[in-house]
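Following up on my earlier thread - several people asked me to post the actual chain instead of describing it. Fair enough. Here it is, all 140 residues.
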Amino acid sequence: MIDLEKLCIEPGKKVWINFVDIYVLDFDGNLFDACSLGAVAAIRSAIVPAAANGLGEDYPMPVTCTPVSVTSVQIENSILVDPTLDEEKVAAARLTVTTDDNGDLRAMQKGLSGALTLEQVKTAIETSRRLGIEIRKLIG
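Reply from S.P.:
Thanks for posting it. Predicted structure:
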């Protein structure tokens, strides 16, 4: 997501460092995706403060792609996307799939104690790819 070479100030000695702190005040489910989108938006709008540190002109954070996570849960025989808190409470399994601009898989995390079939995992991956395209259009 970030071109780390462009954060190098002095090779082998100094680099810019970037932190994203998330403070959740309230939520109604799907905390992973909400935090992920917030972090992506923050990084995409961040400016490297080079001028204030005597290192040339400020420049935008060197973002190379926009990862988008899509979380699905299994409730009985159904798979739901973007679950509410009530849906998460009764879900047997959760799968968060993160894709990049090309639809390539960048991360996947399975949660809760239930099992998912191979077909359910494949469906979640394809859904994440499809919705990732739509979400990227919305966030520009």
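The CA atoms of residues 61 and 88 lie 34 Å apart. That should answer part of your original question.
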